[in-house]
Amino acid sequence: MSSSAMNPPIQDQLQTLTISPLTVTLKRLPHITDDLPNLQTQTNPLQNNSFYHPCDDGFYISHSDVILRQIVFDFSGNFPSSSPHLAYHRAGPRKEIFFDPKQVCAAIVTCGGLCPGLNTVIRELVVGLWELYGVRDIFGIKAGYRGFYSGDPIRLDPKLVHNWHKRGGTVLETSRGGFDLQKIVDAIQNRRFNQVYITGGDGTLRGAVKIFNEIQRRKLNVAVVGIPKTVDNDVGIIDRSFGFQTAVEMAQEAISAAHVEAESAPNGIGLVKLMGRHSGHIALDATLSSCDVDCCLIPENKFYLEGKGGLFEFLGIRLKEHGHAVVVVAEGAGQDIIPRSDSEKQKTDESGNPVFLDVGVWLNSELKRWWERDHKGELFTVKYIDPTYMIRAVTANATDNLYCTLLAHSAIHGIMAGYTGFVTGPINGNYAYIPMEDVAQAKSPVGTKDHKWAWVRSITAQPDFQFTT
User: Fold this and answer.
1) What is the rounded (10 degree) CA torsion for 443, 447, 451, 457?
2) What are the tens digits of pLDDT across the range 239-273?
3) Which among 35, 152, 157, 232 is annotated as catalytic?
4) Which of 12, 132, 142, 269 has the least C-beta neighbours within 10 A?
5) Residues annotated as binding site for ATP?
6) 118 phi and psi angles, rounded to 5 deg
7) Active site residue 285
8) Burial of residue 207, with CB atoms counted within 10 A of its CB: 0-12 exposed, 13-18 middle, 19 or more buried
9) How confident is the model over 315-369, as pLDDT tens digits?
């Protein structure tokens, strides 16, 4: 008998193995009944909505429906015992709700920088509240957090927001800073808002956690939900943040222009600076998508200019071989090697973030200085393109528009079910409710040890910028 007949193929062996039991921890969500246990429930109005079929199995989400955070395991059963296996409540409509739609007074605010899809989120929050649950008191807070106490909210309805998804930016306006906890919660209480929808990045969500905690301290019947927004895609736990795919599309246009400029000149370099203060996701995905990039510089992977294995040596070889090169740099890259004064090191913006120096302008200058020093008299051109505001101010593409709609509706379903202090977003492709504090603290850096970054380096053939001795 042959050895193959005695031993079944490894594929068949794996299918018959028993996986050791896993301990899965469900992340608890705050609920408005934690402080107000006597609140009465009522039947979800979707039960009587002619456009839905709530009697079908699986329409309503139960408390036991969960989403696993980790879905990739070693089928041999060798699971790491030290790593917690987490689950989150699945997003979607519940059969019983804790808000009377006739008594709901909702506030919607956008904070921080712009991002494709902001207006879609606002529109779908308004339309969802109005059409799904029959809410009629919906208000927009203008100019970010400070708008709660510095101006009057504007009344929103489906007719007013009808075409907002076709516009970039945020019609409600936004700003950084202006966070005064007591004034904000006083305004929420005085204006009798009982649902607050906050769209913003990690700084905004940290503020939202404080608002939620203060509301709990005052034992107010107010639910707070966060919708994570960052064009850089650096929010942790969730699969991706809205607007990111649109940003990558726009970044490719800038890279394509830089490539044309570089090819059209002797020793031409196209230099593109892309958004990404703390993570290089836009630069990475745009590099992989365009296939025109010779070097991708991101915050997670430090680089240097001079000497063996440095950027100048690599570009010198590339120009000699191909006559041109395209360099993509994320705005947070190289901050450790850009000269700066002590006062510049201490500067922060209104949100408390450190002020970054312009790596694009600096690198543009350094490239010209290098060439003039080492190749004096030879033709050389650097074309510098900074599409930052083009990328973040455009209208969301179809994929991001759909994503924004699902985020908004998930947020509405969760808050109507009485959950509060949570964020909604996809985990492994399924929408979940995640404690807001967890998301506010989580990061999503580019993994420079994983396959995706290795793919970038295999396409660009760039050095790993590890100092050699």
Assistant:
1) 130
2) 999 999 999 999 999 999 999 999 999 999 999 99
3) 232
4) 12
5) 113, 176-177, 201-204
6) -55, -45
7) no
8) buried
9) 999 999 999 999 999 999 999 999 988 777 778 766 666 788 999 999 999 999 9
